[in-house]
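Q: Sequence in, structure out?
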Amino acid sequence: MGSRLQRRMALRRKLHILRTLTKSKSVKKRWIIRDAFVYMYKLKLQVEAMKREYECLQVNEIEEVKVEEVGNDMDGKRGLLMVRVGWKGKGEEVLVSMLEAFERMNVNVVEARVTSNHFFGMEAIVQPPPAATAPILNQAILNLLQTQNQNY
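A: Exactly. Output:
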């Protein structure tokens, strides 16, 4: 007898906790459990929405510039540089500005890949003039992105 009473009291305690957590107005056991499932489903949807928003924020905060030496050109004379740029703004304006900056600095673009679906991304292998080094090129690209950022 004691164990049946204890089980019933434990069940009532758990149902009461479920009722208070889910803010359910139901009295019957089956409706309290149904309300709890609905509440958990809504929480799951909220978590998924927060994850999507967080991922969008991460994509929007991408702003990186990496310039590193990758090797020599075909003749073995000069070192080639790999330029990687990720930026949160519109790709068309940045690409045009980037190519104009390369032209002003007399940098030859050997190979380039560009994406601008959700953000601007560029990978380019360039051959800089003798006066330009990786840090100088890096700083020039950062300055370009900062001016683009101020325009938005």
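DSSP finds four helices and four strands in the chain.
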